[in-house]
Amino acid sequence: MNSKHVVRRGVLAIAFAGLLAGGAYAQSQDPTPQQQDIQNDKKDIRNDKKDLAKDRADRNSDQRDINHDKRDLSKDRADRNADQRDINHDRRDLNKDRVDRNKDQRDINHDKAQLARDDKNFGANSSQAQADRKDLHADRVDRNKDQRDINHDRTDLNKDRADQRDINHDKKDLAKDRKDRNQDQKDINKDKKGLHKDRKDLRRDKRGH
């Protein structure tokens, strides 16, 4: 009789232990609402930290771009100021070369007219006609040289003006990078607020609301 009683108690003990284990397993599989809130809060905090780190990296990258743009802008302005002096010099050269070219063209026209008169009056092989041809050749050489100088001055002038376009381009880059940096800073501030709120929620959930 005692052995039966012992067996019955053993069976009951095993069954009770099974119930406890099953309940614990069910409890581990199905977290309470409070535990679920805590897990969600921790996940939100991890995501907030990732977002914050990314936005800070973006902000720092934009700040480096801004610093680079400032250096470019400063250099281009220095170049522009030097180029402006070159532009003024090129314009003076261009004007002077045009005056010289126009004078040479008038000399050529004069030499042609003189040559025609001397050919008519003294003959094509006369000393006067030969001298006129020599003058005409020299004036054409001068005129062609002045034209090359004009073309060169125009090239220099266009090149120096191009640096002003570089400045305008750098200003646009700087404005865009500043806008990006400011947006990144706003994102950082927003992430900080989100992180602060999620930490507050976590503390509240741990206290059990």
Keywords:
209 residues; mainly alpha; Helix Hairpins; 2 domains; 3 helices
Walk me through what this model shows.
It is a single chain. This protein is mainly alpha-helical. The chain has two domains: 1-30; 31-206, Helix Hairpins, CATH 1.10.287. 95% of the residues lie in helices and 0% in strands. The chain has three helices and no strands. The radius of gyration is 46 Å and the shape is rod-shaped.
Provide the β-strand percentage band. under 5%
Portion of residues in helices? over 70%
Query: What structural class should be given to the helix and strand makeup?
Result: mainly alpha
Please state the CA-atom Rg, rounded to the nearest Å.
Answer: 46 Å
**For the report, how would you describe the main beta sheet?**
none
Sum up the overall morphology in one term.
rod-shaped
* Overall domain count: 2
| Mean pLDDT across every amino acid position | 81
Name the CATH architecture of the largest domain.
Answer: Orthogonal Bundle
**DSSP summary, beta strand count:** 0
CATH class of the largest domain: Mainly Alpha
Strand and helix order: HHH
CATH fold-type name of the largest domain: Helix Hairpins
Q: Identify low-pLDDT runs.
A: none
Write the SSE topology.
Blueprint: H1 2-29, H2 33-122, H3 127-206
Write a short abstract of this structure.
With 209 residues, the protein is mainly α. The chain is 95% helix and 0% strand.
